[in-house]
Design goal:
Blueprint: H1 3-10, H2 15-39, H3 41-48, H4 52-74, H5 80-103, H6 109-140
Helix pairs in contact: 2-4, 2-6, 3-4, 5-6
Length: 141
C-alpha cells in the first residue's frame, strides 16, 4: 500500500493529519470494543464461546489502551516513538489473536470469525499507521 493510497483513504495528503486520523480511528474502534466487552461480557462470552472473565480483562485493557492511543492522536504532531509502540502493539495483538485461536481458544464459529476479523482489522491499523508515519518522516528529511 502506497502513501498515495493511504492519503486517499485518510482523505488528506497532510501526513500529520493522516497519522492522527488513523490513530483516532484505532482509538475509537478499540475503545468501542473494550467498552462492549466490559458492558456485555456475559452475553458476548456465550456468543463468542469465550469466558466472561477473559472478556472483562480484555475490555479493561482495551479501554485503557484506547484512551492512550486517543491521547496520542490528539497531539498536533504525535512523537514517532509512541506511534511505533502503537504499531508494534497492534502487530502483536494481531499475531497473538491467531496464536490464541490455534492453541488455546475454543470459540464458537462466531467467535472464530470475530477473532480473525478483529486480528485483520488491528493488523490493518498497524499497516496504515506505519505508512502514514513513514510518509510523515519522508517529508521531514
Amino acid at each position: 500500500m502506497s502513501a498515495t493510497q493511504i492519503a486517499a483513504l485518510a482523505r488528506t495528503s497532510d501526513p500529520h493529519t493522516m497519522l492522527r486520523r488513523f490513530l483516532a480511528l484505532d482509538a475509537a474502534v478499540t475503545g468501542a470494543n473494550g467498552l462492549a466487552y466490559l458492558a456485555a461480557s456475559g452475553p458476548l462470552g456465550r456468543f463468542l464461546g469465550t469466558g466472561s472473565g477473559l472478556l472483562l480483562g480484555l475490555g479493561a485493557f482495551l479501554t485503557v489502551y484506547a484512551v492512550a492511543v486517543g491521547l496520542l492522536a490528539a497531539r498536533a504532531r504525535p512523537a514517532a516513538l509512541p506511534v511505533r509502540a502503537v504499531i508494534e502493539a497492534n502487530l502483536a495483538w494481531a499475531a497473538l489473536s491467531f496464536v490464541a485461536l490455534g492453541l488455546w481458544l475454543s470459540p464458537t464459529t462466531a467467535g472464530a470469525v470475530w477473532t480473525v476479523l478483529q486480528a485483520l482489522t488491528v493488523g490493518g491499523f498497524a499497516l496504515v499507521q506505519h505508512v502514514a508515519l513513514k510518509a510523515r518522516q519522508d517529508i521531514s528529511e
